Amino acid sequence: MILVAEKSILPDPTDVAQRIAQRTLAARAPDYSTEVRRLLDAGREVMRRNGTTGKARVADIVAASGLSNDAFYRHFSSKDALVAAILEDGTARLQSYLVHQMEKEATPEGQVRRWVEGVLAQATDEDAAATTLAVLWNAGSWNVASSLERPAGPSANAPLATLLWEPFRALGSADPELDASLVGHAIVGKLSDYLWQGTRPSRAERAQLVAFSVRSVSAG
After folding, report:
1. Cα 9 to Cα 66: distance, rounded to the nearest angstrom
2. What are the residues whose beta carbons fall under 8 Å from the beta carbon of 117, sequence distance 6 or more?
3. Domains recognised in the chain with CATH numbers
4. Is the pTM of this model over 0.85?
5. How far, in Å, CA of 82 to CA of 40, rounded?
6. Could you give the 3-state DSSP secondary structure of residue 68?
7. Does residue 71 contact residue 32 with C-beta atoms inside 8 Å?
8. Cβ distance 192 to 143 under 8 Å?
């Protein structure tokens, strides 16, 4: 028999419920992470396959993922939410790639060059360019910069530009964060132009954009 003395010595039933709920979520976390990854990859693939001729449906994405509607709406409130997550995931992948490339250089000029060329590589790789366009088409935007930098959505410029802070500081920038943001907008803007025009930056254009990025800081 359980003797109840004073209420204050009893465990808070709310705390018990929270602990059980947290334990359940912790146990399901790996499964949920796998579900999200499958949905992101399936969404990206379906959109790439459809291109800019038709927007992907949630039903198509769910079918490609091999999951259920319940699984989709467990993680995303709508297809727009999935598209935003795909854009954010792509930005994180690009950021990781840029870090890897910049680590190969010992000079700040070399690091800036790697950064610029790495961003523009999204337009030179045919599959990457087609996938990016398809995802943006599903986001309902005609411009990479506005899609990835609008206040209501994920920003590509902000996380990518942070990688330029240290190189710009080493180059003598008085405000490396502002300079990095400005250069980031400029280069992402040019990427937008190349993608929507279906063109690729030439070697001379890439060199000019690298020189612009370094010179803009040095001039300041």
Report:
1. 49
2. 101, 206, 210
3. 12-76 (1.10.10), 79-220 (1.10.357)
4. no
5. 7
6. coil
7. no
8. yes
Cα distance between residue 129 and residue 117, in whole Å? 15
Q: Which of 80, 35, 83 is nearest to 62 (CA)?
A: 35
The average pLDDT across 205-215 equals 95
**How far apart are the two ends of the chain, measured CA to CA in Å?**
79
SS (H, E, C) the chain: CCCCCCHHHCCCHHHHHHHHHHHHHHHHHHHHHHHHHHHHHHHHHHHHHHCCCCCCCHHHHHHHHCCCHHHHHHHCCCHHHHHHHHHHHHHHHHHHHHHHHHCCCCCHHHHHHHHHHHHHHHHHCHHHHHHHHHHHHHCCCCCHHHHHHCCCCCCCHHHHHHHHHHHHHHCCCCCHHHHHHHHHHHHHHHHHHHHHHCCCCCHHHHHHHHHHHHHHHHHC
- Tens digits of per-residue pLDDT, 3-26? 444 444 455 555 766 775 677 667
Using an 8 Å Cβ cutoff, are 206 and 120 in contact? yes
87/136 Cα distance (integer angstroms): 8
In angstroms, rounded to a whole number, what is the distance separating the alpha carbons of residues 75 and 37? 11
